[in-house]
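STRUCTURE:
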């Protein structure tokens, strides 16, 4: 469940995604900076914190369900960015692919905790 550095694979994937996400969100029009951009970035950072918390928590399932909900919110917000033509199709596809991959990893972790992912 951990990589050679002791990090959770889902955490490593999420950090790679965040490294891509922040510069991408900085390219959005100024008018979205304090609305959608900031919201997406805040959810991304919340998920970083939630994944750290889940790693050490006894009751991981509740935290992981919260992560799933934030991922879903990010998905909708980024779709709005795409529909408003703030991001390219290439960026949208990369976002969705990355977030779906992490979502599957979270779903597997939830199942491992003895619950359903809600999907």
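SEQUENCE:
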């Amino acid at each position: 469940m951990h990589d050679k550095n002791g990090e959770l694979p889902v955490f490593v994937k999420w950090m790679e995604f965040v490294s891509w996400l922040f510069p991408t969100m900085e390219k959005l029009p100024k008018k979205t900076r304090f609305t959608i951009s900031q919201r997406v970035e805040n959810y991304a950072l919340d998920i970083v914190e939630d994944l750290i918390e889940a790693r050490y928590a006894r009751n991981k399932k509740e935290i992981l369900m919260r992560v799933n909900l934030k991922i879903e919110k990010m998905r909708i917000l980024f779709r709005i960015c795409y529909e408003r033509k703030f991001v390219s199709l290439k960026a949208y596809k990369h976002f969705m692919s990355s977030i779906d991959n992490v979502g599957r990893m979270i779903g597997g972790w939830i199942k491992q905790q003895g619950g359903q992912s809600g999907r």
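REMARK: The domain at 9-112 is CATH 1.20.1440.60 (de novo design (two linked rop proteins)).
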